[in-house]
Amino acid sequence: MKVIFLDFDGVLNSEKYVQNCGEYGVVIDPTRMLLLKQVIDATDANIVLSTSWREHWEKKSSECSATGKQIDAIFAEYGLSIFDKTPKLHLRRELEIKHWINEHSNIDNFVVLDDMFLGAEFLEGHFVKTSNYHDGLDETNVKEAIEILRR
Description:
Elements: E1 2-6, H1 15-21, H2 30-43, E2 46-49, H3 66-77, E3 82-85, H4 93-103, E4 109-114, E5 127-129, H5 139-149
Parallel strand pairs: 1-2, 1-4, 2-3, 4-5
């Protein structure tokens, strides 16, 4: 199984997009969703939420908060679904990702898409850093993620 550990803010949206749309809450830029879809279409990877927004989402839709249901609906618009989420261990994000990986023995490869630098050694060669909330996911990030997942 291939996995994308996905952050939202600074990956699926940007400061520019949020300011221009004038909304708050789960704000996802459609152009960034199309870029994410390119990665998934090219690699058949599963999405695992590592974003702080994951606390609103559950595998069973009936257990999601209204925000979690909104997240599911947005992904469904693009023919995408969320496979799972990292646990909330009150640790650094990279340690929560490592915990999830250690709990799943069927991972062939993974990539982390995030705008924060996650410097853990086990992420070397598996991390794509977007532009610090300025622009979000871009074509260069998409190519890099696909390359990582195809290894």
